[in-house]
Amino acid sequence: MSDAPVKIVVDLSKPKGQRESIIELTQDEIDEREVMATEAQAQRLVDEQAKADAEATRQSGLDKLIALGLTEAEALALVGA
Amino acid sequence: MAYQLIETVEVGSGGASGISFASIPQDGLDLVIVMSLRQTNSGDFVNAGFRLNATTRTKTTAFRVTNGDSVSSTTSYLFGINGSSTEANTFTFSRIFIPNYTSSQEKPVTHDVFGENTTRTNQINMQSQRFNITSGITSFNLDVGGTLAQYSTASLYTIS
C-alpha cells in the first residue's frame, strides 16, 4: 500500500451505502495543500499582528487616561478590562 | 424549516487528509455542514481549509473574529483544528452555513469554529465571507494540513 495521503470522497449521486470511497490525492491536490499551508501561515502572522496592534492601542489609551488623572480602575472601566 | 441529513462520514483508523462531498442535491434551500474534527499532527490548532465547487479563490474579502479580535481577511476559508498537542479526544466543532445555495447569486457563507484546548488557549473563530460563485453549490471539500484523526466526522444537511 502506498503512503500517499488519501481523502474520503462521498458521492451523493449514488445510493446510500455506496457513496463513500477512499482515494489517493493527486499531485495537484498535494501542491494545493502546500499553498494552503503557506497562506495559513501568512494569515496567522496577520492575525497576530492585528492582535498586537490592538493591544498596543488599548494600552496607549489607558496610559493617557491615567496621565489625565484617572485611577487605573477608572481608566479600565472606560476602555474595558 | 426542516433539516434533512443527507450524509454523515466518519474517518476510520487510517486517517484521511480530506473529506469531499460531491454531487450535492440541488433540492434544498440552505446548506449546512457540521463537522467534528481533530488532526494527528502536533500543534495546538493545525491548518485546515474548505472549498466550495473546488474553489477558494474567487471571493471577496471576509470579516473574521478570532478570540475577540476582528480582522479583514482574504483567506478566511482557513481555520484551525485541534492538533495532537491539545488534550486527548478533544475535537474542534465547525459549522458552515450557506443560505440559498442553489441560486445564481454570489454565495454568502458563515463559519463558526470552536476549539477547546484546556492546557493553553481555546479557539473561537467566527467568519463571514462571500464566495464569488454564481451557480449552485455542488461540492464541498475539507482539506487539512495534516491527517484527520479517527472519529472525526462531517455531516451535510439541507434545509427546506
What does this structure look like?
The complex is a heterodimer of chains A (81) and B (160). Chain A has 81 residues and is α+β, with helices and mostly antiparallel strands. Chain A has helices spanning 27-67, 72-79, and strands spanning 6-11, 20-24. Helix content of chain A is 60%, strand content 14%. With 160 residues, chain B is mainly β. Chain B has a single domain, classed as Jelly Rolls (Sandwich), CATH 2.60.120. Helices cover 0% and strands 54% of the residues of chain B. Chain B contains no helices and 12 strands. Chain B has strands spanning 3-10, 16-22, 30-37, 45-52, 62-66, 69-73, 78-82, 92-98, 107-115, 123-131, 140-148, 153-159. An 8-stranded antiparallel β-sheet of chain B has the order 1-12-3-8-9-10-5-6, with no helix packed on it. In chain B, 44% of the residues are buried. Chains A and B meet through strand 1 and helix 1 of A and strand 1, strand 2, strand 6 and strand 11 of B.
List the helices and strands and how they pair.
The complex is a heterodimer of chains A (81) and B (160).
Chain A: E1 6-11, E2 20-24, H1 27-67, H2 72-79
Antiparallel strand pairs in A: 1-2
Helix pairs in contact in A: 1-2
Chain B: E1 3-10, E2 16-22, E3 30-37, E4 45-52, E5 62-66, E6 69-73, E7 78-82, E8 92-98, E9 107-115, E10 123-131, E11 140-148, E12 153-159
Order of secondary-structure elements of chain A: EEHH
> Which two chains touch over the largest interface?
A-B, 29 and 28 residues
Overall average pLDDT of chain A: 86
In helices, the fraction of residues of chain B equals under 10%
Distance from N terminus to C terminus of chain B (CA atoms, Å) equals 6 Å
What is the CATH architecture descriptor of chain B? Sandwich
Count of helix runs of chain B: 0
**Would you tell me the structural class of the helices and strands of chain A?**
alpha+beta
Round the Cα radius of gyration of chain A to an integer and report it: 26 Å
- Total strands of chain B: the figure is 12
Rg on CA atoms of chain B, Å: 15 Å
* Poorly predicted spans of chain A: none
